[in-house]
């Protein structure tokens, strides 16, 4: 808290890819009372491989068949591909069941 005022200063590190729309979201959720100031600090390489899939029995046991935790490198890579209009391999429906919600009245 800044002395003599009712202002709070919060410092945090946020990935640039996730900072788009952050200022609008903060203002929206605080009804315009908060305004963030974003400053580039540093960069670092994401250590995970965007094309990694579990292959060994141990990896299947630890991560599951689909590797349930989302791969951050793949997430960022797919976001850039979508933005540029390139092909992104993703399944829209994985396990679908036929559902009939409208019945025909005769």
Automatic annotation (TrEMBL):
Please tell me one Gene Ontology term that the record gives under cellular component. ribonucleoprotein complex
> Which BP terms does GO give this entry?
cytosolic ribosome assembly
Q: What residue stretches are annotated with the Elongation factor EFG domain? A: 4-50
InterPro entries according to UniProt: EFG_III/V, EFG_V-like
GO molecular function term, any single one = ribosome binding
Quote the Gene3D superfamilies the UniProt record gives.
3.30.70.240
The record's annotation in SUPFAM superfamilies points to: EF-G C-terminal domain-like (SSF54980)
* Name used for this protein in its record: EFL1 GTPase
Taxonomic lineage: Eukaryota, Metazoa, Chordata, Craniata, Vertebrata
